[in-house]
Amino acid sequence: MEISHERSGDVVVVVPVGRVDAVTSDKLEQSLLGLVAQGEAKLVLEMRAVEYISSAGLRVLLRLARKQKERSGRIVLSSLGPAVRQVFELAGFVSLFEMEASRELAITRLANAPSP
């Protein structure tokens, strides 16, 4: 799995590429929680290049959402492919996360939100 970060104003866009499973989820968790620990309050997780997510990956995202909530931060998921979206729906996670169809819409949603 590859993970890149980009900044758009006060929003950090995280772009994982590949599978998010038991083998790779630790790397994603370290990257995301590292950003939270650095004080990044507005995160977009662009999922366009994620081809698969397992329950281990879902746990990472749930942990991230809890950390962000504790710190009055926010995370928006964007660009979920059909297979990944289906996993979120089957797990009942759709209602737990803010989601947008594109990176641009996710950035706009967070950019227009007040900073914590």
General description of the model:
The protein is α/β, with parallel strands linked by helices and 116 residues long. 41% of the residues lie in helices and 29% in strands. It contains four helices and six strands; from the N terminus they run ββαββαβαβα. The chain has helices spanning 25-37, 55-70, 82-91, 103-111; strands spanning 2-8, 11-20, 42-46, 50-53, 74-78, 98-100. Strands 1, 2, 3, 4, 5 and 6 form a six-stranded mixed sheet that branches. Strand 1 and strand 2 (11-20) form a beta hairpin. The longest helix has 16 residues, at 55-70. It is globular. The termini are far apart. The mean pLDDT is 94.
Give the key terms:
116 residues; 6 strands; alpha/beta
Outline of the structure:
The chain has 116 residues and is an alpha/beta fold. The protein contains four helices and six strands, in the order ββαββαβαβα.
Topology:
Blueprint lengths: L1 E7 L2 E10 L4 H13 L4 E5 L3 E4 L1 H16 L3 E5 L3 H10 L6 E3 L2 H9 L5
Parallel strand pairs: 2-3, 2-4, 3-5, 5-6
Antiparallel strand pairs: 1-2
Helix pairs in contact: 1-2
What value does the average pLDDT take?
94
Q: Would you tell me the structural class of the helices and strands?
A: alpha/beta
Helical stretch tally: 4
Computed Rg: 13 Å
